[in-house]
Design brief:
Shape of chain B: globular
Strand content of chain A: 15-25%
Largest sheet of chain B: 4 strands, mixed
Distance between the termini of chain B: 44 Å
Bound molecules: flavin-adenine dinucleotide
Number of helices of chain B: 10
Oligomer: heterodimer
Mean pLDDT of chain B: 92
Largest sheet of chain A: 4 strands, mixed
Number of helices of chain A: 8
Chain lengths: 326, 350
């Protein structure tokens, strides 16, 4: 269908459509809880290469991403905590990487990773650089991790003198990471809104169907209010996402603030809708058989992938302050 | 949805900006800017007079009720142009608060149900602020359940005779006209026996009594009707079809109240930006930032939800239930924001 390469330029094997179209696809991916390595490959790896890759790197990787021949990911985190240059301990020296990354989304099935590594010790952002590592090559050990979301894997990747190719200039890594995270925040927010909407629909459908006290439970005001609150949070999130999509697709200066707002709003909406959907389903919501738990799991896992809610809350206020001061 | 101005929109914005810069009552700008959360009041000036003067000036230059047709006192502007105007009018737009009910609810109802001659007579002075309108729906026994209202209208020749009581009527004390929902048939189901009229608030038998609000001010009123006579020509819609007519008003109410709704967020953000707590600036405190971020995304979500409604409207779609979100969210948010601003000051907040 060309979904993977929708935002990749035609010269690199994509459809060259743009990020607006990618947002539409992201929403449907989220609605369906698609168990595919789409976000890791497309929102993270491809975006990093689009931003920082040389022409040769784009020629090498983007057509494979667009055709589905290569699965990529971003190896950023190293255990607990949120995105921060200080937390990056993996080292890059003489063209090889050493250290451990976890969790790495879809790391167990990825062919390559964009890896954030330390190339300096000044204590500043400019200590961080990016590298592309072939995960099928020597010096790479991959271990699957158990995680909340059953539809998307997480892995621990150990590098022992793994060969690495620089992506972008030395010391520019953190600035690229920040841009990638902002873009991925908008795209992921669309996945979250898709998931929130689906959880709301499931709750509504169940409420119309389920009879208790001789009436559909959807006729009880307490249930109506639960559903109305879900609709409100999903709608506010969608509106924030549309603004984010505009900022992303036009590369507007408002992107950092818009991305943080979309991220926070969509995270809250998905968690809220997935949680209330379980409540509306009563005992059924507690079972394996009904999909409620799948949405609940995704809502809680996807809330952490790019940094937690409190991380993005902090980022939003920082960005608003900067704008205010300007 | 596109958030950039098209070249035409940019030209319209520039024209609006230039006209406002040359004509707005700048002496009140600071007071108006600070007045968003509470009542709008101006030191040493009568707010009603200042508001009417600004509205008239706008009307004379074609900037009043922009989205209304020209023949009814508007400009025939698109919904997007109206938004651009509101953005540019900024704090001076707060002077329009006493016209919201007339422009947002009574006007659209008149436009949908009054005769052509009446529209040409009543709408231009409504647009220009020379005549102020109010909405007489709520009653002691008909609040949320507005169809439970009891004010009677009885036919007598070419006239209707009104007896009963309305309550919570905003601006009745300075209004020239009102739209009035009455019961014309008490024998049928409650939604089926209502009829809508418009009337001159100076009609004999209309008595307005102010209600003192929690704030100490009196912006709304009780209105008593004793044998008030309204000509049948001032009926809006068919006899006993008042419920449908009122739905037009209320759908417009949701839009006009939901759109530019105040949340208190910009004020709280500014407040936190300058407040110093025991352990440093409030804006650097993790707990404060988390609260602010949560309200920030609600405020921006509301703003873009109303922009989506406006773009739907400009594509010719009808306003739907999503327009209730503004009032639903902002109503309790503004209370929470104000409580938090007090909380941050500890005992001094009292
Ligand atoms: C973990 C777990 C363990 C359990 N263990 C036991 C057990 O050992 N023995 C046992 O007998 N039962 C047990 N139950 C069942 C539990 O008591 C029922 O799930 C509960 O009574 C709800 O019924 P329901 O699932 O049919 O939901 P429903 O009654 O269908 O309710 C669905 C939703 O509608 C709402 N709702 C229903 N009626 C109204 C109303 N009138 N007004 C407003 N809202 C309404 C509910 O609050 C809920 O949100 C267990 C349930 C769980 C989840
Ligand atoms: C500032 C202000 C300005 C106003 N201006 C005007 C005006 O200009 N013209 C005009 O006509 N009216 C006006 N109103 C009236 C407003 O429209 C009514 O207050 C409103 O319809 C509520 O009616 P009520 O006060 O009788 O409350 P009630 O109907 O008595 O409601 C009390 C509480 O019960 C809840 N409740 C009621 N019914 C239900 C239900 N079925 N299910 C669940 N909860 C329910 C309500 O949500 C509310 O919380 C104004 C009100 C205010 C506060």
């Amino acid at each position: 269908m060309g979904f993977l390469g929708v935002a990749i330029p035609e010269q690199f094997g994509g459809a060259g459509a743009g990020h607006l179209e990618l947002c539409v696809i992201a929403e449907e991916m989220g609605r369906a809880l698609a168990p595919v390595p789409f976000s890791s490959t497309v929102y993270l790896a491809a975006e990093a290469i689009l931003i920082a890759g040389s022409d040769a790197q784009k020629q090498k990787w983007l057509p494979k991403i667009a055709s589905g021949d290569a699965i990529g990911t971003l190896a950023l985190f190293e255990g607990k905590g949120n995105p921060s240059p200080k937390a990056v301990k993996v080292t890059a020296n003489g063209g090889v990487l050493n250290g451990v990354k976890k969790p790495v989304p879809d790391g167990a099935i990825a062919d390559f990773a964009v890896v954030a590594a330390r190339t300096g010790s000044s204590g500043r952002e400019s200590d961080i650089s990016l590298f592309i590592v072939d995960l099928k090559a020597g010096g790479v050990e991959v271990k699957s991790l158990t995680n909340i979301d059953l539809t998307r894997g997480q892995a621990e990747i150990t590098f022992k003198d793994a060969k690495a190719e620089p992506l972008g200039a030395t010391g520019e890594g953190w600035s690229v990471i920040t841009q990638v995270l902002d873009r991925a925040a908008v795209l992921t927010a669309f996945e979250q809104v898709g998931g929130a909407d689906r959880a709301l629909e499931m709750g509504r459908d169940y409420a119309l169907d389920r009879i208790a006290f001789g009436r559909p439970i959807g006729s009880f005001q307490a249930v109506k209010h639960m559903l109305a609150d879900m609709y409100v949070s999903a709608t506010l999130a969608r509106s924030n996402c549309y603004y984010g999509a505009w900022a992303l697709s036009t590369n507007a200066g408002e992107l950092p603030e818009a991305a943080a707002a979309a991220r926070i709003s969509a995270t809250q909406a998905f968690q809220h809708c997935a949680k209330n959907n379980i409540q509306v389903h009563g005992g059924m919501g507690f079972t394996w058989e009904f999909d409620c738990h799948m949405y609940y799991r995704r809502a809680n896992a996807v809330a952490l992938g790019l940094g937690s809610l409190s991380y993005w809350e902090d980022a939003l206020i920082d960005r608003m302050r900067k704008k205010n001061a300007a | 949805m596109n958030f950039d101005d098209t070249p035409q929109e940019a030209a319209f914005r520039a024209e609006a900006k230039a006209w406002i810069a040359a004509n707005a009552p700048k002496q009140y700008e600071d007071e108006l800017r600070k007045a968003s959360l509470g009542r709008v009041a101006l030191q040493g000036a009568n707010i009603l007079e200042v508001a009417k003067a600004w509205q008239k000036k706008k009307a004379d230059a074609g900037w009043a009720c922009l989205h209304w047709p020209k023949e009814y006192g508007g400009r025939g502007a698109s919904p997007i142009e109206r938004v651009i105007w509101q953005q540019e009018e900024g704090p001076f737009g707060r002077l329009s608060s006493m016209f919201i009910i007339g422009h947002g609810m009574c006007g659209p109802t008149m436009m949908a149900f009054a005769g052509e001659e009446q529209k040409r007579k009543y709408l231009p002075p409504l647009a220009s602020g020379e005549k102020v309108w109010c909405q007489l729906f709520s009653e002691p026994a008909g609040g949320s359940d507005v169809a439970g209202l009891r004010t009677r209208a009885e036919k007598n020749g070419d006239e209707w005779v009104i007896n009963g009581q309305k309550i919570w009527t905003s601006g009745a004390h300075y209004s020239d006209y009102g739209i009035l929902l009455t019961r014309t048939d008490p024998t049928v189901a409650k939604h089926k026996g209502l009829t809508m009229f418009f009337l001159d608030m100076k009609s004999p038998g209309v008595e307005v009594r102010p209600i003192k609000q929690a704030s100490g001010a009196s912006d709304f009123n009780e209105v008593y009707f004793t044998d008030v006579r309204i000509p049948d020509s001032q009926r809006l819609g068919n006899v006993n079809d008042g419920w449908n007519v009122s739905l037009t008003t209320l759908m417009n109410e949701r839009m006009s109240i939901g759109a530019g709704v105040a949340t208190g967020f910009p004020e709280l953000f500014d407040f936190c930006n300058s407040l110093i707590l025991d352990d440093g600036p409030a804006i650097e405190n993790r707990a404060v930032r988390s609260k602010l971020a949560n309200w920030a995304v609600k405020a921006s979500g509301l703003k873009y939800t109303s922009m989506r409604a406006i773009s739907a409207l400009s594509r010719g779609e009808r306003p739907g239930p999503e327009n209730s979100i503004g009032k639903l969210v902002a109503g309790s948010m503004i209370q929470d924001v104000a409580t938090y601003a007090l909380d941050l000051q500890g005992a001094a907040g009292a």
